[in-house]
Amino acid sequence: MITGIGIDIVQVNRMKRWLDNEQLLERYFHSEEINLAQSRKKNAALTLAARFAAKEAFGKALGTGLAEIALKDIRVSNKDNGKPDIILLDTAQRAFEKSGANKVHVSLSHERENAIAMIVLEKV
User: Fold this and answer.
1) Domains in the chain and their CATH numbers?
2) Is residue 112 predicted with pLDDT exceeding 90?
3) Which residue, 108, 88, 86, is CA-closest to 98?
C-alpha cells in the first residue's frame, strides 16, 4: 500500500552557486554525494540538484516535511546498474520508521536547467 508520494524540482543554477560553499554542501549533502558530484566535474551541479530534489520530495512523501530531519541524513546513491537509491540515516531513518512505511522508491530526472525527483513510500 502506498503511504506517501512526494515530488520536487530544483533549478540547476541554484546548485552551481552552492558548489563554492563547502559549509553549505556539508550541511545538506552526505560526504559521498559531494564526492560523487565533484567527480562528475561539469555535471556536478546537475548531480546535486537531482539529489536535493529527492531530499525535498522525501519530506513531502512523509507528509511531515523536513523540520526534524538533517538533509545529509538522506543519502541518494546509485545501484550498480545506475538506478537511484535512497539510504536513510539517523534522523531520516527515525522519521521513516515513524511514518509506518517500510520501502522507498525514487526516480530522478534532469536536463540542462532543472532536476526533478519523485519519491513513493510504501508499506509492504
Assistant:
1) 2-122 (3.90.470.20)
2) no
3) 88
